[in-house]
Amino acid sequence: MIAISSISFGEDVEREVLDTLRSGMVAQGPKVARFEVGFAELVGTRHAVAVNSGTTALIAALRVLDLQPGDEVLTTPFTFVATLNAILDSGATARFADIGEADFALDPDVAAQCVNERTRVLMPVHLYGQTADMGALMPLAETEGLAVVEDAAQAHGATFDGKGAGSFGLGCFSFYATKNLTTAEGGMVTTDDEAVADRLRVLRNQGMRRRYEYEMAGQNFRMTDLQASLGLPQLSSYLQQVESRRRNAEALRTGLKDVEGLVLPSELAGRGHVWHQFTVILAPDAPIDRDTLAQRLSDRDVGSGVYYPRTVYDYDCYREHPRVIASPTPVATSVARRCLSIPVHAALSTDDVDRIVAAVREAMEA
Ligand SMILES: *Cc1c(COP(=O)(O)O)cnc(C)c1O
Question: Which GO molecular function entries does the Swiss-Prot or TrEMBL record give (predicted)?
Fold first, then answer.
């Protein structure tokens, strides 16, 4: 079976973890600090503050914006549930603007129409490894006076006009096991703003600046040196990993370009895609539907994944929620029924890629 993701660590990671174990410093310490410096360099920000998950990165970023009840965060409905849960944790109200099919991310024109006098934060999600249209979203945020929180959980090292995902506003990253860069569980908030970075550091450590001196009601959002030991060695080879993903994506695009009924993902002009996922859309007139394609791939030992099967607000626990405003988002609703991600990860061999192409081609023949 060719799996949708592959998790493996090199001897460099094994050595680093062992070194940490033997040092006795397993909680947050010098390795977290080194990981922060290296990660800030990858993203291109002055600061990076490590936390213990992508979800807590989002929660911490929204916390330092001091949102008040009634404030709204405008985001995409086509995302992982953590985006919405973090907004609700902040006490703010979530509003959703529809996506575009080309990048699966916030459509700037629709977003502009959804901004109102309560909107405080614009929260794009850089889905599948490609950034949202920051060239249009940043001017919108500026005109409307909105803070920008980027959910870059899937976009380590992605760029828009050469500028890193997570360097436009407050950048929130995840190092969950299946992400491009992993510490098993972990997260990071990136920013150029020294005062914001300082508040994040105090917040993640119980609101404590010095021992038993509390400045705010804080949390335990700390990453451990054990986690950082997984991430640190990956930093130096990360761009090579992305290069493998990029090669695989190119081979998939070439092998599948003439398959009728299949819309292939592409790297849009000016955007550096890090190919966290390779997600196809079944055209409305495709000979088979998405679930049939997934089943037929599975029959041919090719794994696939649906990210995400429904818009994020389309669950009973959110439908009646007083702080979830679910206006219709027809593009996202339709794409959620028609999208399928196929393997693109760096561990694929050329043989694997050929097998995936052959399996998709066979499967798409009605
Ligand atoms: C993974 C992910 C998160 C949450 O990250 P965790 O580390 O799992 O908490 C948030 N948003 C998106 C888009 C993600 O893919």
Answer: transaminase activity
